[in-house]
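Recap from last week: sequence in, structure out.
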Amino acid sequence: MVVLKFESLGFREEKKYLVVSLYKLFSFKVDKKILDDIGKFRIKKHEIEFENIKESRAIKKFNFIISSHINNLTNDLTKKNTIYIHQNSGIPLMGSNSFGIVDRGTNLIELKPISGCNLDCIYCSVNQDKRTKDIVIEREYLVEEFKKLVEFKDCKIEAHIGGQGEPFLYNEIVELVKDLIQIKNVKLVSIDTNGTLLTKNIIDELAKLKKVRLNYSINAINYELAKEIGGKNYNAEHAQNMARYAAKKMGVMITPVIIFGVNDKEMGSIMDFAIDIGAGNNSPIKVGFQNFLRYRFGKNPAKSIPWPEFHSKLKELEKKYNTRLILDETDFKITKVDELPKPFKKDEIVKVKIVGDGRIPGEKIAVARDRVITLPDCNKKGNVNVKITRTKHNIFMGEVL
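Predicted structure tokens:
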């Protein structure tokens, strides 16, 4: 008997199929008849056993089944087809604003390990309804590529986990943070969250690591208004309770998005809440108010107000609470640092390989020179020539010729 054990994969039977789960949130189905060709099998939670076969042959055959079915991976929460990006996927982690690693020329590096969200906020800059694909990245691959960039920058680094989704949907989020903190020169890991998936156990595990801050998006203290903003699945009471618990253990900054005419009257209550729970963890920065901005592919329930008007409101609160609320990079010790050299120049003609669909309908993901290039409005396949139309911050876009 051969027993194959996995950390990230799980198994369960469903009529004539074996359901294979990845990071608990994603899954695909394999017809049991295909597995019967390997040999008689039995499953446990993270194990599959085969009889009457050599281990090397079982591993080879089972890995082939996994690789040939992984394109059918589905996000069980959003029900969307999901791209799994791993070390052997042929997809680099730099070049896209949707996933992977983003270097904007500072000592803060953005990490986007997962897309998709458990909420449906009315202001979402991503608007999951307009995204037809989800993405999840292998933890080891993300850590390996991040480490290379940290070594290149050779300075104290903040790793910022955010992106186009709720980071705590990533089943290995705690393990990811542990991996990042162990890398030389990483001074802090900050994580964006809506707080609804946090538990005391998760908070305790993160608090042990010392170098963690939660950027906590509580957008209203009033439960009913908070639910109107966050959607029907938003548990405002739980989110606030977890913020209160976390603030006693680690760094927490409350980061509300303010939509004038919707939740601007909650700004004082949010300040009171942040002070009451001890947000900031001995730091003067307890709240980072964000001005609602409109995005082409986001949700736009209202108009954005001009920055001078927004800052005027913040100045009133600064005076009332005797604290800084108009923040900039210096408040977070973010400094300019050389970004990784760009392998393309704007308007350069480059031959690229299209490797799959992007998150937005009609969008393709292409690869060249160890970077991802996003191709909007593209219906091509295979190798094509493109003109590079964007290179800023090592985020590349192209136009098929």
